[in-house]
Amino acid sequence: MDLIIAANWKMHKTNAETVQFCSVIRQFEDDFRGVEVLICPPFTALSAAESALKGSSIRLGAQNMHWEAQGARTGEISASMLLELRVGYVIIGHSERRHLMGEDDNQVRNKIGTALENGLKPILCVGETEKEREQGATEEVIKKQLSGALEGHAPQDLYNLVVAYEPVWAIGTGKAASAEDADSAAQLIRNFFRDKFDAGAADSLRIQYGGSVKAENIDSFVGLSSVQGALVGGASLEVNTFSSLIQAARKAV
Ligand code: 13P
């Protein structure tokens, strides 16, 4: 299974900065073989990224979307708007949306459903806060987020899903999870799929680790048989840093 490494730029980069990044990263493409590389710019830069990546194997993702097809939803973006820009993936339920914007499991479930129905591959983010971890609630939180997001889906619907384990305390803190913690969360996620869906859905699931990933520690995550990639924030913003991270990941598998 190819690794999937995604750059989540969050609220960073103008169109001009996006074009600059994309025109440089394409030059490294030959060094990325065996890794599916994904750039998730802000909505405003998707079109610029799409043009700048034309003909390249680097794919595009969005950071969010609404579940309705259209309507009175000021500030929201629909699946068809993303598809028009040749967006293939969409991050759903990122902890910053859950904790800063109040996104709940119902909304996450609706978004996952709409993404799958429209042929967009969702990257579903799950992960516990520091407090939940201290309370020993990590497993419970991850299972609750998975059930909340995936209830009612048939196993065959989920073959295009990616799950990112992103412990909230590791995001942007420089304090990445240990390989042991990432491994046990990834195994928990895969076992959930085996129990609630079927072996096919569990075996084909790609699981990413996210939270303070950088070129110097990516090997400890993608070296695990339970983890197939990473969702990268800060270390994806500078093109040489991100490219080194991808190359370090390739060497580790
Ligand atoms: P950092 O890599 O900056 O910790 O962010 C992780 C993240 O939230 C990716 O979605």
Write the layout of secondary structure elements.
Layout: E1 3-8, H1 15-25, E2 35-40, H2 46-52, E3 59-62, H3 79-84, E4 89-92, H4 95-100, H5 105-117, E5 121-126, H6 130-134, H7 138-150, E6 162-165, H8 179-196, H9 199-204, E7 206-210, H10 218-222, E8 229-232, H11 239-252
Parallel strand pairs: 1-2, 1-8, 2-3, 3-4, 4-5, 5-6, 6-7, 7-8
The structure holds 1,3-dihydroxyacetonephosphate (13P).
1,3-dihydroxyacetonephosphate (13P) is lined by residues 8, 94, 166, 171-172, 210-213, 231-235.
Keywords, please?
single chain, 253 residues, alpha/beta, TIM Barrel, 8-stranded parallel β-barrel, 8 strands, globular, binds 1,3-dihydroxyacetonephosphate
Distinct small molecules bound, one entry per kind: 1,3-dihydroxyacetonephosphate
The biggest beta sheet reads: 8 strands, parallel, barrel
Low-confidence stretches: none
Rounded radius of gyration (Å): 17 Å
Helix-strand sequence = EHEHEHEHHEHHEHHEHEH
What form results from the Cα inertia axes?
Answer: globular
